[in-house]
Amino acid sequence: MTDFTNPEVDLDLLPKYQEVTFLPIHKNYWNIIIINLLITIIIMLGVTAVGFIFMSTSDDIGLATYLFILAVELLFIGFLIWSNRLAFKKRGYAVREKDLLYRSGILSTTTTIVPFNRIQHIAVNEGMFSRMYGLAAVEIFTAGGSSSDLSIAGIEKEKAHQLKEFLMKNITRQGKPKPEESMDSGLISEL
Amino acid sequence: MFADSLQKFIRAAWVPLVIMLYRVPSQAILYASLVVLGLFAILGFVAYLKYRNFTFYLDQDKGEFIVRSGVLSKKKISIGLEKIQQVNINQNIIQKLIGVYSLDVDTAGSNSKEVSIRAIDKKSAEILKAKLLDREVTNHEETVLQEEVQAKPFIKISPLSLLKLGITSNYGRSLGILIAFLITVYDNIREFLENEILTEEQIEQYVVRNTIQGFLMIFFAMFLLVFIINLVRTLIRYFDLEIRRQSHSLLISYGLFAKKNTLLNPRKVQIVAYSQNLLQRKLNVLSLRIKQASSEEVKEDGKKNESSAIEIPGASIVEREVILKLIYDKIFTKGQELKPNYRYIFKRIYLLLLLPVAAILLFGYFVNPQIQDYFILLPFYVGLMSLLIYIGYRNYRFYVNDDFILKKKGLWDIDYVIIEPYKIQSITTKQYLWHKRSDVGHVILHTAAGDVSFTFANFTQINAYINYWLYKIESSDKDWV
Fold it and tell me: How would residue A173 be classed by pLDDT, with cut points 50, 70 and 90?
């Protein structure tokens, strides 16, 4: 206890989370967003096409109406792609020595900071399309409920696993005793 | 590393396939059964793939439990052994038939089970459970009750305090129930009157006058009734509330007929909240709520306890201080006051004043002129709302110091929430584009017992605090549970 010191903390000298430079999401992830968007668009257009075919039997609706609906849909698709592109560009993550940051949002910038020693568990999720591009999502769970959980999509698979390993190593607090080596190997061979 | 670690893949998941045999009286049924069979085959195939891809193992070197799953999208979940809170072994009917068990691993926080192994034989399940919880047992030994130190209760809530609190609270809810009830009654009466064919106007008027009189009578009687019921309920439920100290924990017992005992470990407290209104302040009573990490409330049978909060109604301000001191092991002090930006008021003026008033005016002028008769009420609405918004703003405050964060808000019942910085799990900040220039932003502090947010804060100021809180969280070894 003799070497215990408790100096005053200068708020201005603390590391500032808001000055961190964020790493962008892998550029191939944009392709995955596009694939997902395409699926939505195809379904949307398909439904409209079916609607047109059924409606065309009655003469109440003219060509102009069809064109109008189609134009609105195309505008909407354009908006979807544009807004997704913006959102994609805004996304980013950063790893500091003791915490992980994730930033997203178009109209509002949302930044979530998860200290390593509050992480409960981690999952690496490789979606079907993500695997085609060798990407993965790292999901981080804390005890703060679903609103505070993080999912960082679009990281290179290898990097994702590295990140996971790095986090797993760091979330175990130093004060905790290391797992005992004496745990019997009989257990699993029994299973 | 993997070679050293005890690593063997345990395959689990059975493919229960029930194939129905049909006789073939007609072709239709043949086709139908072919389709069904085909579906079963696909299902079976998918199930088989899932089974093939579902593996788990225990990495003893790293102290991790790892589960891999997924066919098209692959998932790998790693759980540090010391984070595991609960391991449950269950069996449902189908599993009973096949003779397997399911094993669920639960960590703190999230409501859903993080990992569920669907089919595992009992012996393996129990060995695995023991292994998973091995470290946990040694860690939490101290929380297991040792000898019962039945000290004298240091806090006793008298029935009088309960009475005071009961009288001054709950009437909002009572009134709500009452109004809902009366609206239905009124509707029924009106329907009844309309359906009756009353040709003579006088009779109708007589009836109406009588109903209004009776109506008021019923209103009053009902109000009284609901009020008394609520009061009696509070009295019975929390009768003779006592708090004792028991080794490291607090033992809270209460109840007139059904005596309830709750053991509270101060270390596990995440949030302390209390609420008090003007009348209660005059009578020196308040109602206190202590929230623990939600996963801690899992009972032995694996079902979640409905209320993870422990309620202490009728405490005085002095008693509040004593309880807080016991929980936090130091005296609670209010810190520096943070005010929300004036935009906090703007948003509410816009949503609660401008928008509804404009809607009513437009509706009255363009759609239904009859509404214009009620326009006279608008100034009263505007006046009342302005007052409420102002009071709301006055009460919306954050108080921050080294050890505590206090949030205050409310109109009539003022709610206070206290958290300790090192109990924060993660922090989210949010800033809209149009708030950037005026340096305004929102912050949400996530804890294991819920979120605490502060909106329209001075962003520079709150960011300085966030950096400080992060420093506190990341530099301390203190356990948050």
Answer: low
In chain A, where the domains are located: 19-172
* CB nearest B58 (choices: A117, A171, A188): A188
B253 found inside a domain: yes
A143 touches chain B (CB under 8 A): yes
For B10-62, where are the alpha helices, taking DSSP H only? 27-53
Give the range with max mean pLDDT: A44-48, B47-51, B69-73, B221-225. Answer: A44-48
Give per-residue burial for B171-208: e unless 16+ CB within 10 Å, then b. Answer: beebeeebeeeeeeeeeeeeeeeeeeeeeeeeeeeeee
pLDDT class of B179 with cuts at 50, 70, 90 = confident
Q: Are residues B70 and B165 in the same domain?
A: no
The interface pTM score, or ipTM, of the predicted complex is 0.81
Which comes out higher in pLDDT, residue B118 or B396? B396
* Residue with the larger pLDDT of the pair B210 and B473: B473
B384-392: Cβ within 8 A, 24+ apart: B385/B352, B385/B353, B386/B349, B386/B353, B388/B352, B389/B345, B389/B348, B389/B349, B389/B352, B389/B353, B390/B345, B392/B348
Q: Which one of A142, A164, A166 would you mutate to disrupt binding with B, by most B Cβ within 10 Å of its Cβ?
A: A142
Is the CB of residue A115 less than 8 Å away from at least one CB of chain B? yes
State whether A141 and B473 contact (CB < 8 Å): no
Mean pLDDT of B362-372: 82
* Average pLDDT value for chain A: 81
Q: Please tell me if residue A190 touches chain B, with a CB cutoff of 8 Å.
A: yes
Residue B446 in 3-state DSSP? strand
For residue A11, is pLDDT > 90? no
CB B346 within 8 A of CB B353: no
pLDDT band at B108 (very low <50, low <70, confident <90, very high): low
Q: Is B116 within the bounds of a domain?
A: no
Taking only residues 37 to 66 of chain A, the set having a beta carbon closer than 8 angstroms to any beta carbon of chain B reads none
- Domain with B33, as residue range(s), is 10-85+122-141
B267-322 pLDDT, tens digit per residue, is: 888 889 998 888 888 888 888 888 887 644 433 333 334 346 788 888 888 888 88
**CB nearest A112 (choices: B81, B426, B477):** B426
- Does pLDDT of B238 surpass 50? yes
Q: Is residue B456 part of a domain?
A: no
Among A85, A93, A84, A87, smallest CA distance to A24 is for A93
The overall average pLDDT reported for chain B is: 77
pLDDT in tens, B411-439: 888 999 999 988 898 999 999 999 999 99
Co-location of B190 and B308 in the same domain: yes
B428 domain residue, yes or no: no
Residue of A nearest to B127 (CA): A187
Instruction: Pick the residue of A185, A188, A189, A190 with the most B CBs within 10 A to test the interface with B by mutation.
Output: A188
Q: Does the distance separating the beta carbons of B295 and A141 come in below 8 Å?
A: no
Using CA atoms, how far apart are residues B220 and B226, in angstroms rounded to an integer?
10
- Same domain as B347, residue B201: no
Domain with residues A19-172, CATH architecture: Roll (2.30)
Q: Are residues B161 and B196 in the same domain?
A: yes
